[in-house]
Automatic annotation (TrEMBL):
InterPro entries: WH-like_DNA-bd_sf, WH_DNA-bd_sf. This is Fur family transcriptional regulator. It comes from the Bacteria. Gene3D superfamilies: Winged helix-like DNA-binding domain superfamily/Winged helix DNA-binding domain. The lineage of its organism: Bacteria, Bacillati, Actinomycetota, Actinomycetes, Mycobacteriales. It comes from Mycolicibacterium sphagni.
C-alpha cells in the first residue's frame, strides 16, 4: 500500500512528538495550522494503515484499558505516559 499525503504527515507528526499519543490528541496536533480540520476518523484510518505496514504500533494505557496510544514502531520507551505495548496489536 503506497503512502498517502496524510499517512506521511501522520508519521512525521509522530516522529516530531516523540512520545505515545492518542488519536484525538494527534488530530488536535495536526489541526493546529490547518484551514480545513481533520476529523478523528481520518487520523485513525491513517494510523491503522501505518500499523498494517508495520510503521507504527498501538499501545494500551495501564490506567485505562479503553485508551489507546500510537507510537513509531521500535521507538524506545523514553516517555513515562503510562502506555505499554500490546503484543501484536
Amino acid at each position: 500500500m503506497p503512502a498517502t499525503p496524510l499517512t506521511t504527515e501522520v508519521l512525521r507528526a509522530l516522529e516530531r512528538i516523540g512520545c505515545p499519543v492518542s488519536t484525538p490528541d494527534l488530530m488536535r496536533w495536526l489541526n493546529r495550522d490547518r484551514s480545513t480540520p481533520l476529523v478523528v476518523d481520518q487520523v485513525y484510518r491513517a494510523l491503522d494503515a501505518l500499523r498494517a505496514r508495520g510503521e507504527v504500533q498501538r499501545l494500551k494505557a495501564t490506567h485505562n484499558k479503553r485508551i489507546r496510544y500510537w507510537t513509531i514502531s521500535g521507538a524506545s520507551d523514553g516517555c513515562r505516559c503510562g502506555a505499554r505495548q500490546l503484543g501484536a496489536s
